[in-house]
Structures are given as structure tokens and as C-alpha cells.
Design a protein that fits this description.
The chain is of the alpha+beta class. It has helices at 4-36, 38-49, 89-100, 104-111, 127-138, 168-171, 183-187, 189-193, 232-249, 285-292, 295-298, 308-317, 352-358, 361-382, 409-416, 425-436, 472-487; strands spanning 50-55, 62-63, 69-81, 119-125, 151-160, 197-202, 215-218, 225-228, 254-259, 266-272, 326-329, 332-335, 338-341, 348-351, 400-401, 421-422, 441-442, 447-451, 457-460, 465-467, 502-512, 515-528. The longest helix is centred in the N-terminal third of the chain and has 33 residues, at 4-36.
Length: 534
């Protein structure tokens, strides 16, 4: 028979063991909550008693080479609402549609989400529009006063282009979130974007800001400034000329580039027709995509006679001809059974210099055949043909150059005067600059410096020599020859009083569905000044 004391001790041990097990469970639970789930629970708690907002970073400016503004971010506002606090959703939707042009249907759909702490009703609202809504909300006598109950205003940033359509395709566009979508805005998005800040406030169970709550503010860091090689005055002049060219010639499109021949810096790049990046036709995506295209980089064309400056440079540089050599033009030449015709009446006896002035196809056919495929192609590759120039924009094409292993004599002959080869405008002007700048092929570029918002230089972009296709002596000869094309030959319309101008005209056919379009062509001109020191 057990003693009463032993039974009590046994029960006491069991009871203490049970308490110990319960204590271990509590400890284990605390370890799980405070160690393994600490981060998750802290975040959940913070979401319940705080409201976080993003402080948008001011996107960096884009300025021209003289520091004049081309693109800037300006303060705008986000209109939000606490759906549970909106007493008249229909009325609020009508006011926003009237004042901001926001669809009432869209607003009502967003306000259905009563579980959300806040819903965004409009982005990039101008200061004027925001002030008008605030005035309505603060005036108890206004008939729309009660309809705006529950809305809030948060600072936002929108992009402003003070020069309107000037340089539109090159500058590009940003979306409503301030991210670059095209042009320089896309190419340098990381440089321009900056670092967003943060605003955290304490709120109650209904997501209302506590009057005496703690507020944490982390300021945003503004983006860097892009200083371009573009000269705003030159750009404006070129765009006026492009618009006039479209009107006078009833052209479908015009492209023009101005480049510093010695550095490759782009001083102007115009594409017509254009658009206003501050008010793009976003409702018509196809039209917008077409207007946004950087056709000076992406579209290829047969250059026609402007290409003869490359053929002439190569032939003179390697000794295949001299400016004084005599030729005879009968109006046509046959190559492997295929006839190449001159563009007009036969020129008869002429020197190589005169052939360039006359833009004589048979002479340049002969020069291309003399050079031969291997030698001619070495020069063409050195001039950058068949490859992208490397300009600091996205979407550049490489042009079309028949593979040297497949090129036939008739192809080589036609390449000599600018057919059976396709280039982009940026390729053509870059190669032409090498012809007249002493024989240096430069990498074209649009951004010359990256600066902080305070104006301190972060990075400077220096001119870069890519190749040396011809000698300085050949370049000097070509400057003289191209000067004579303007003073004596087919480029006389390019003469400017008080300036010595050199250049070369070109006319190319357009093919559609494998056939030549009778009433369409591409007219082009490559020019430089002054001849002695471009």
C-alpha cells in the first residue's frame, strides 16, 4: 500500500512536468514569432499602423551644348482617394471628368475597391488643376464641396519640353511613371532617373493620418543632367529648312543632320514630320510609333551619287586614278552584259575631276572595277559601311552591303555610283566627314557631358577616332574636288555668299515590290564649309 506522501509527490512531479512542457511550447512559439517570423510580422505591423508613399525623384534636365534647356521635370500632383471616405462617388467622378478630363467610368471602378487604403484617380495633374480642386474642396459654399471629400494630393513629377517639337525624336518620350520610352530619354534613363525618396506616416485603423503621429521623410535624389552636342539655334534653323523642303517638294519625309566634321559631335538632327512630345498622339499608337522613329538611324536607302565621294576617295588614295586622268563618257557602259547608263546626255571627254562635277556614272563604274572587290571593300569597311556607327541612341541599323564573297562585277560597278548598296543617313554623313576632315572616321555622339543637378561634371565624352580610311593628302584633294562640284558642277545651288562650300548631290530610285516607283525618288546632298577648313 502506497503512502499518501508518495502519491502527492508523483502528482506534483506530473503537474510540474506539464507546466514545463507548456513553458517550452510558449518559448518555442516566442522564438518562432520573434526570430524566424520577426521580419514578416514587423512588415505586417508597419503596414497596419503606417502609410508609405514614394517621393518621386526629379528627373535630370537635358540641355544643349550652351546649357539651354531642352527637357525638364516639373512638379505635378497625384490625386488619390480613400474609397471608404468618399460619400458621393458619382459626384466625385463627375467633377474629376469635368476638371481633369478623367473618365467618370474609370474613377467609379477604382472607388469600388473599398479595401484599399488609397486608390490613385489621376496622375501628372498640373499645379493649376490641383489648386482649382483644392479651392473647391475648401469652399463650403461651392456646390461641389462635399463631392470632393476623401481625396488627397501627393506630389508627382511630369516631363516638360519647353521648345515644343524641337528635336522631338532625339529627345524621346517618358511614360506617366517618368521612365524613358524612346530617344535619349530611354538611352540614358538610368542617368536621368535619380533615386526616389520615401514618406512614412502613422495612421489609425481607418488609414487616417494621426495628428500627432511620427513622420519619416527620406528625400529623393535628383537625376543627372545631360549636356548635348546639339546647338539649339542650329537645330531650329535645320528644322525650318526641313519643313520648307517638305512643303516645296511635297515630300513624304525629310531628314537632316549637321555634324562637326572634326569630332563627330552632332549639332543638329531633324526629322520631318514631327510631333510635340509634351502632347503626343497617345490615343493613336500606330501614328505615334511612326512619328517617334529615329529614321536617320533606322532607315536605309540607296545613296545614289553622294556615294561617289567614297569611290573617288578610295581610287585616289590607292593610286587607281588622279583628278587629271582623262575618261570618255558615251552615255553608257556595259559590264558583264549589263548596261549602266549615265543619268543624262553623254559627257564625252572629261577628266576625273570633271566626272565628279558631272556625276558621271560610267566613270565611277570604271573606278570601282579598277579598285576590285577586295580593295574597294577594305575602304568601304574602313568608312564604316555595313556596320553601326555606335552613336549613343538605340535602334541603329547597320546598312546593307553585299557580302564580298558574293559580289559580282555588275554589283561592284553599281556600288561605285551608289546603287546596290544601302546606308543610313548617320552612316553617310559620318563617312563623308572622314573624307574631308583629314581622313579620320569619328564615332558620332549626342551627349558631351553628364553633370549633377548642381552642375558638377560626372563624365565628359571625348571624340573617338574609329578608323583612318584615307590619308590626309587624299582628304585635302577631295576637299578641293568637292569644292569644284559646288562652284562649277552640279552642286551650284549650294553656293553661299561669303563662304567656300563643297558637296555632292545624289538622286536615288525607290523600289516597291521589286519594281522602281516612277514618280518617287530620294534626293540628297552632302555638304561642308568652308572648303579650306571644314
Amino acid at each position: 500500500m502506497r503512502s499518501p506522501g508518495a502519491t502527492v509527490r508523483k502528482r506534483l512531479v506530473l503537474l510540474m512536468g506539464g507546466f514545463f512542457l507548456l513553458f517550452l511550447c510558449v518559448v518555442a512559439r516566442l522564438v518562432v514569432l520573434q526570430v524566424f517570423r520577426a521580419e514578416e510580422l514587423t512588415q505586417r505591423g508597419a503596414k497596419q499602423w503606417t502609410r508609405s508613399g514614394i517621393v518621386a525623384a526629379r528627373r535630370g534636365d537635358i540641355v544643349d551644348t550652351k546649357g539651354r534647356l531642352l527637357a525638364q521635370s516639373v512638379t505635378s500632383f497625384i490625386v488619390s482617394a480613400r474609397a471608404r471616405d468618399v460619400s458621393d462617388p458619382q459626384g466625385l467622378a463627375q467633377v474629376l471628368e469635368r476638371e481633369l478630363g478623367v473618365s467618370a467610368e474609370s474613377t467609379l471602378k477604382k472607388l469600388e475597391n473599398t479595401n484599399a487604403a488609397s486608390v490613385t484617380l489621376a496622375r501628372q495633374v498640373s499645379r493649376e488643376d490641383a489648386d482649382r480642386l483644392r479651392a473647391i474642396r475648401q469652399d463650403e459654399k461651392d456646390p461641389d464641396y462635399a463631392k470632393l471629400r476623401g481625396i488627397t494630393f501627393d506630389e508627382d513629377v511630369s516631363r516638360w519640353y519647353p521648345m515644343g517639337s524641337l528635336l522631338a525624336q532625339v529627345l524621346g518620350l517618358c511614360n506617366v511613371d517618368g521612365e524613358g520610352q524612346s530617344g535619349l530619354e530611354l538611352r540614358y534613363n538610368d542617368v536621368l532617373a535619380g533615386e526616389p525618396g520615401k514618406l512614412v506616416t502613422e495612421v489609425d485603423a481607418r488609414a487616417r493620418t494621426l495628428p500627432d503621429g511620427v513622420t519619416l521623410y527620406v528625400p529623393a535624389q535628383p537625376g543627372n543632367t545631360l549636356r548635348l552636342t546639339i546647338d539649339r539655334e542650329v537645330q531650329a534653323a535645320v528644322e525650318r529648312a526641313a519643313r520648307e523642303c517638305m512643303e516645296v517638294n511635297e515630300a513624304q519625309g525629310v531628314q537632316a543632320i549637321v555634324m562637326d566634321v572634326n569630332t563627330g559631335a552632332v549639332l543638329a538632327m531633324a526629322i520631318a514630320p514631327s510631333y510635340d512630345p509634351a502632347n503626343p498622339p497617345r490615343e493613336d499608337i500606330d501614328t505615334l510609333n511612326e512619328l517617334m522613329r529615329l529614321t536617320v538611324l533606322s532607315d536605309v536607302y540607296e545613296p545614289g551619287s553622294t556615294f561617289k565621294i567614297l569611290t573617288a576617295s578610295a581610287a585616289i588614295d590607292c593610286g587607281a586614278t588622279t583628278p587629271e586622268e582623262g575618261f570618255y563618257c558615251s552615255g553608257r557602259i556595259t559590264v558583264d552584259g549589263s548596261t549602266v547608263r549615265c543619268w543624262g546626255a553623254p559627257h564625252g571627254a572629261e577628266s576625273m575631276k570633271k566626272a565628279l562635277q558631272n556625276s558621271c556614272n560610267p566613270v565611277f563604274t570604271q573606278l570601282a572595277l579598277r579598285l576590285g572587290t577586295d580593295r574597294f571593300y577594305r575602304y568601304l569597311h574602313a568608312f564604316g559601311l555595313g556596320q553601326a556607327t555606335g552613336i549613343d541612341l538605340y535602334g541603329e541599323a547597320s546598312g546593307i552591303l553585299i557580302s564580298g564573297s558574293r559580289v559580282k562585277n555588275v554589283d561592284l560597278a553599281r556600288i561605285g555610283f551608289g546603287q546596290s548598296v544601302a546606308v543610313t543617313p548617320i552612316q553617310m554623313i559620318t563617312a563623308a566627314c572622314a573624307v574631308v576632315n583629314g581622313g579620320r572616321l569619328m564615332r558620332p555622339y549626342l551627349v558631351e557631358a553628364i553633370e549633377t543637378a548642381e552642375g558638377e561634371t560626372v563624365e565628359t565624352i571625348s571624340p573617338q577616332v574609329v578608323a583612318n580610311p584615307i590619308s590626309a593628302e587624299t582628304s585635302a584633294t577631295m576637299r578641293e574636288l568637292l569644292g569644284s562640284v559646288v562652284s562649277e558642277g552640279g552642286g551650284k545651288n549650294a553656293q553661299v555668299e561669303g563662304w567656300s562650300v563643297g558637296g555632292k548631290t545624289g538622286t536615288a530610285q525607290i523600289y516597291k515590290n521589286g519594281k522602281i516607283e516612277a514618280n518617287l525618288h530620294i534626293g540628297s546632298f552632302v555638304g561642308f564649309a568652308p572648303v579650306e577648313d571644314p
